[in-house]
């Protein structure tokens, strides 16, 4: 399904998991001469989708000008989905890399919240323990083990409510599943929906 929102094209991909509704707005890459699904700094020629290029520039080139069009595209998508009419908060997946000068996912989530008139707190959903980068772990069972007790919530401020979980990239879905479980069981939220900016062409 191809749409054009605020001059940024998206091609929706449904995401299945332990959440109620889920979508990636587009693939991250179109093609690459190296690692076709790489979301790290490429060593080879890589062609990205429009929104994939925007998130790459934000995350790896510190191009802060990309945050606004990404946030506006996500916010406009959310406004257009009847499944999301009752969301009460926008929650960024906690970052795994703390050495950045800023956290791209949190920055975009905060702006999405502003555009939708919803809270996007950075003190609610937290990383409870350090984890290895999952992009280097191909076995799903090892990924799940790495993510056991990796996340926590500070309180039950969104208990019995519908929340939107936001991330930049969907690969295997293991992180999103772990965070969703934390929100449902620790946070006792009523429903979790997921939106990611992009997805890889492979879930490995």
Low-confidence stretches: none
Q: Largest sheet, order of strands side by side?
A: 3-4-11-10-7
Give the averaged pLDDT, no decimals.
86
CATH architect. name: 3-Layer(aba) Sandwich
Structural class: alpha/beta
The count of strands amounts to: 11
Report on the architecture of this protein.
27% of the residues lie in helices and 26% in strands. The mean pLDDT is 86. It has helices at residues 50-60, 67-79, 104-116, 140-146, 174-185, and strands at residues 2-5, 8-11, 13-14, 21-27, 29-32, 46-48, 87-92, 125-127, 151-153, 162-170, 191-199. It has a 5-stranded mixed sheet with strand order 3-4-11-10-7. The protein is α/β, with parallel strands linked by helices and 204 residues long. The chain has one domain (7-199): Rossmann fold, CATH 3.40.50.2020.
Can you lay out the helices and strands and say which pair or pack?
Blueprint: E1 2-5, E2 8-11, E3 13-14, E4 21-27, E5 29-32, E6 46-48, H1 50-60, H2 67-79, E7 87-92, H3 104-116, E8 125-127, H4 140-146, E9 151-153, E10 162-170, H5 174-185, E11 191-199
Parallel strand pairs: 4-11, 7-10, 10-11
Antiparallel strand pairs: 1-2, 3-4, 5-6, 8-9
